Amino acid sequence: MKRLITTLLGVGLLAGAVDAESKPATGPAAAQPEITLADLQGMFRNLDQDNDGKVTRKEHATFWQNAFKSQDKDHSGALTRDEVDPLPRMRGAFDGMDADKDGKATPAEHDAFRRGHFKVFDKDNSGDLTMEEYTANHPDASSAGDR
């Protein structure tokens, strides 16, 4: 659970950067400098469930489906702004998730939103994310030795 919360807090920076149709809004990590390169590296490691140095579509989807369940505090089967926005780094994420703007993000909307994130990061369209792809947009990435 601690691993999930840590990653939710960190990955929230990405949530406002991509809308449900996978279009970058402002540029992922660069738009929110309070996220360190180490934060992103830690998030990547949390997503990489089998610790093989890459995040597959399945690992990414499974992680975020579990995150959805964890965030759905009222067990309604949908996320509300109140359930998403209290997480400090998730501010603005709800607007990207709620594709039909009805005030709730369904599992389908959430999944589409997260698939959009994966697509943005998967620069080589391999179906796997590497640490380099995941951290590439951070301002400190070019000077980092351990990516």
Task: Identify the strand order in the major beta sheet.
Answer: 1-2
Give the overall form.
globular
Overall pLDDT confidence: 78
Number of helices: 7
Number of domains: 1
Low-confidence stretches: 1-33
Percent of residues in beta strands: under 5%
Q: Could you describe the largest sheet, including whether it forms a barrel?
A: 2 strands, antiparallel
The radius of gyration computed from the alpha-carbon positions, rounded to a whole number of angstroms, is 14 Å
Spatial gap, N to C terminus: 25 Å
Question: Secondary-structure element order, as H and E?
Answer: HHEHHHHEH
Number of strands: 2
Helix content: 40-55%
Structural class: mainly alpha
Brief summary:
The protein has seven helices and two strands, in the order ααβααααβα. The protein has 147 residues and is mostly helical.
What can you see in these coordinates?
The chain is mainly alpha-helical. The chain has one domain. Helices cover 47% and strands 4% of the residues. It has a two-stranded antiparallel sheet. The protein is globular and about 40 Å long.
